[in-house]
TrEMBL record:
It holds the Pfam family Fasciclin. PANTHER family: FI19380P1, PERIOSTIN-RELATED. Keywords: Signal. Residues 19-148 form the FAS1 domain. This is Fasciclin domain-containing protein. InterPro entries: Adhesion/Biosynth-related, FAS1_dom_sf, FAS1_domain. Gene3D superfamilies: FAS1 domain (2.30.180.10). PROSITE patterns: FAS1. Coiled coil: none annotated. Residues 1-19 form the signal peptide.
């Protein structure tokens, strides 16, 4: 009985240790270093570590690399503009891929992004969704191949 209780306690503590918020999930993935640095520069870490839930369309490092270096450097130094771009990638609530419907979706930034589906490919604005349903304990991440910009 003692072994069973100890094993259950270990399993519970391991599952609690494995639970991670949006920011920690992105950090541990290893392909969102630029996104995490941008979230830190914009002062959004505490928000994205908060209770949420959030749905984040997360551009990879390769997506950020498509932006000219001078443009990206300027964006990273302009907190207001950076916050606007980053919050455009976030939708309130936890929206799993199976629940996504084509059309306009209101972002945390305040304007709408457009979700479209054609030929088995889902896009948000002009960014292609390349991986879905990366679950965090306060939401979900869908990986996109480009940085999307608010209008």
């Amino acid at each position: 009985m003692k072994k069973m209780v100890f094993g259950l306690a270990m399993a519970l503590s391991l599952s609690a240790a494995q639970a991670a918020d949006i920011v920690d999930t992105a950090k541990s993935a290893g392909s969102f270093n630029t996104l995490v640095a941008a979230v830190q520069a914009a002062g959004l870490v505490d928000t994205l570590k908060g209770p949420g839930p959030f749905t984040v369309f997360a551009p990879t490092d390769a997506a950020f690399a498509k932006i000219p270096k001078a443009t990206l450097d300027a964006l990273l130094k302009d907190k207001a503009a950076l916050t606007k771009v980053l919050t455009y990638h976030v939708v309130p609530g936890k929206v799993m891929a199976a629940s996504v419907k084509p059309g306009p979706v209101k972002t945390v930034e305040g304007s709408n992004l457009t979700v479209s589906a054609a030929g088995g490919t889902v896009s948000v604005d002009k960014a292609k969704v390349v991986k879905t349903d990366v679950v965090a304990d306060n939401g979900v991440i869908h990986v996109i191949d480009s940085v999307i910009m608010p209008k």
